[in-house]
What we know:
The chain has a domain of 148 residues: Nucleoside phosphorylase domain (Rossmann fold).
Amino acid sequence: MFFDCQADEKIIEESTILYHFIAASSKLKQYIYKNKIVLAYAPLGGPAAGGLMEELIALGIKRVIACGSAGAIKDFDQSKILIVNKAIRDEGLSYHYLKPSTYVSSDEALIEDIKKQFKQMNIHYLQGITWTTDAFFRETKSRMNKRIFQGAIAVEMENASMAAVAKYRNIHFAQVLYFSDVIHNDKWSGFQINRKQIKEMVQKVMIELVMNIIG
């Protein structure tokens, strides 16, 4: 699952349209790639991503690997991809699926599959905690420090929601994140100049990874 408006033209050439996902004013094409995997495109935000997952699950999907961008909230090598092992639940949708808790975890078996493929592809990665929030204008210094104390190294808007849907529906879910900006040191860095190129590169890597996993 990608958080993008549309697929790359080269991907479209090798895909067929599965259906259109409609969320408010968004109408996004969902594809079957090379007759093997579903390439899903979601609007931003937990409710929309969770809704798309519900529809894909209803169509028979049993494993979901999501790929999206995140803001870094700690000092570390931002050139590496982050494999999320759990998310801090600072959003709303997950509480409609699971009992209240601080964290929701990703699927360990699927994480191991991703790590194995990254090692074979010589992709450098980190593994850790993300902070999922609905309110990007309320990523205040005090709240950020609290999330860092709880172990978060990234902030985004969907992971906890998707992980909760997956647990409730008893399917496998994991997510990888690339870093598009930095949110600490009392200011926002702005988006990386090469964010578009990073996104395109990571998406190609993830498609290859998933194709390798299914064999």
